[in-house]
């Protein structure tokens, strides 16, 4: 069977297609015939070696969905034909995070989903909602779950709260959709007015172009009548955290998620967090139990992931380049024939 792998190319990696043995399940594993995968900014980080991870020979991507084609001898919960998605952390079933899960992240420490067939832990998969296609379901494991976990399990978002989410990539568009469905007033930023118009059609109440309004924190402050946002989906990192701290409401929550502006320290004082009694939540995706709760919510509200573009299996490099361009709105998908 065919699989993409990362191969060392000097200081960075390249994608290579290789032939691998057809996998067979261990006693507590299943084999999934992958039908679709999706990209996250983390995969761009890995390919370009921005986080200095050793992944030579590793199959990329945390996100994929498909059908079970074989189950191990101890597996009773699953059968061939079941439609499933893999969990980002194969071993985080629920509850509090444990550092051991870092050794079980798909497409990072262990092989990921960009292959025709993959072996996964029977406890490291979820059933996908019937109304979603494989392409749509492949968008869920990282970006959607990160937004869901930030807003619900960790953020405790309530109807009527104000949510600010930055940019219109995978995590932020899911945050917009979840925020609207949970009854929040959602403010979203983007570098592109066309994307902001699209965000309004998905229910955003207020939008700010962060290119033309460099002081977007002041815009958020004004749009909330000097109260600030109760929840902020902070995907920018050091280059945006200062303004997020200016835009957060007293007693609010900042979900510290991303590194779109790099991995360095913030240049601003963290003092506003104290002065406003703000919670700063470090977020790393979410557990299988959160994934299952999110799928129930998606089904109840009939929320469909927003796919920007679907690439074929032979076009994986083009898909990575498309994500890197930042021209997308929502998710970038690769199908597996
Ligand atoms: N901690 C976790 O569990 C976790 C999980 C998922 C993702 N992440 C991180 O979260 C970030 C987003 O991931 P993703 O997969 O959603 O990325 P993505 O889909 O590649 O999002 C890219 C978009 O982010 C926006 N953006 C870029 N720079 C920005 C800035 N300075 N201010 C505001 N928006 C900016 C742009 O939107 P516009 O074109 O609209 O301007 C860009 O198109 C990444 O850093 C990723 O590593 C972390």
CATH topology of the largest domain: Quinone Oxidoreductase, Chain A, domain 1
Number of helices: 10
CATH architecture of the largest domain: Alpha-Beta Complex
Any idea how many domains? 2
Can you give the mean pLDDT?
A: 98
Bound molecules: NADP nicotinamide-adenine-dinucleotide phosphate
The largest sheet, given as strand count, sense and whether it forms a barrel, is: 7 strands, mixed
Question: How do the helices and strands follow one another from N- to C-terminus?
Answer: EEEHEEEEHHEHEHEHEHEHEHEHE
The CATH superfamily of the largest domain is Medium-chain alcohol dehydrogenases, catalytic domain
Oligomer: single chain
CATH class of the largest domain: Alpha Beta
Roughly how much helix do the residues carry, as a percent range? Answer: 25-40%
What is the number of strand segments? 15
Class from helix and strand fractions: alpha/beta
Shape: globular
**Can you tell me the residue ranges where pLDDT is under 50 for at least 5 consecutive residues?**
none
- Terminal CA distance reads 11 Å
Radius of gyration: 20 Å
- As a percent range, the share of strand residues is 25-35%
Write the layout of secondary structure elements.
Blueprint: E1 2-9, E2 12-19, E3 29-39, H1 41-47, E4 63-71, E5 83-86, E6 117-121, E7 125-127, H2 134-137, H3 140-151, E8 162-165, H4 170-181, E9 185-190, H5 193-201, E10 206-209, H6 216-223, E11 229-234, H7 241-247, E12 248-256, H8 271-275, E13 279-282, H9 288-301, E14 307-311, H10 316-325, E15 331-335
Parallel strand pairs: 8-9, 8-11, 9-10, 11-12, 12-13, 14-15
Antiparallel strand pairs: 1-2, 3-4, 3-6, 3-15, 4-5, 5-7
Helix pairs in contact: 3-4, 6-7
The structure holds NADP nicotinamide-adenine-dinucleotide phosphate.
């Amino acid at each position: 069977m065919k699989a993409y792998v990362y191969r060392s190319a000097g200081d960075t990696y390249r994608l290579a297609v290789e032939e691998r043995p057809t996998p067979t399940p261990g006693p507590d594993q299943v084999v999934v015939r992958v039908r679709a995968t999706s990209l996250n900014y983390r995969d761009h980080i890995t390919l370009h070696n921005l986080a200095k991870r050793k992944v030579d020979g590793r199959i990329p991507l945390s996100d994929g969905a498909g059908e079970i084609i074989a189950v191990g001898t101890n597996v009773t919960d699953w059968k061939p034909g079941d439609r499933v998605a893999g969990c980002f952390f194969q071993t985080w079933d629920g509850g509090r995070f444990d550092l051991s899960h870092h050794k079980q992240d798909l497409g990072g420490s262990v092989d990921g989903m960009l292959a025709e067939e993959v072996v996964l832990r029977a406890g490291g998969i979820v059933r996908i909602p019937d109304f979603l296609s494989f392409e749509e379901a492949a968008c869920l494991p990282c970006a959607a779950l990160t937004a869901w976990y930030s807003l619900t399990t960790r953020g405790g978002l309530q109807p009527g709260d104000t949510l600010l989410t930055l940019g219109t990539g995978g995590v932020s568009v899911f945050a917009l959709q979840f925020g609207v469905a949970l009854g929040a007033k959602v403010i979203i930023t983007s570098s592109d007015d066309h994307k902001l118009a699209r965000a309004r059609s998905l229910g955003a109440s207020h939008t700010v172009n962060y290119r033309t309004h460099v002081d977007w924190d002041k815009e958020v402050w004004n749009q909330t009548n000097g109260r600030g946002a109760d929840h902020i989906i902070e995907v920018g990192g050091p280059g945006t955290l200062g303004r997020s701290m200016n835009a957060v409401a007293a007693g609010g929550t900042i979900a510290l998620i991303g590194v779109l502006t790099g991995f360095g320290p913030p240049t601003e004082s963290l003092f506003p967090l104290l002065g406003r009694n703000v919670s700063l939540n470090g977020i790393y995706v979410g557990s299988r139990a959160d994934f299952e709760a999110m799928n129930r919510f998606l089904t109840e509200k009939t929320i469909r992931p927003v796919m920007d573009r679907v690439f074929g299996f032979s076009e994986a490099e083009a898909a990575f380049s498309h994500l890197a361009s930042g021209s997308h709105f929502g998710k970038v998908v690769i199908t597996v024939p």
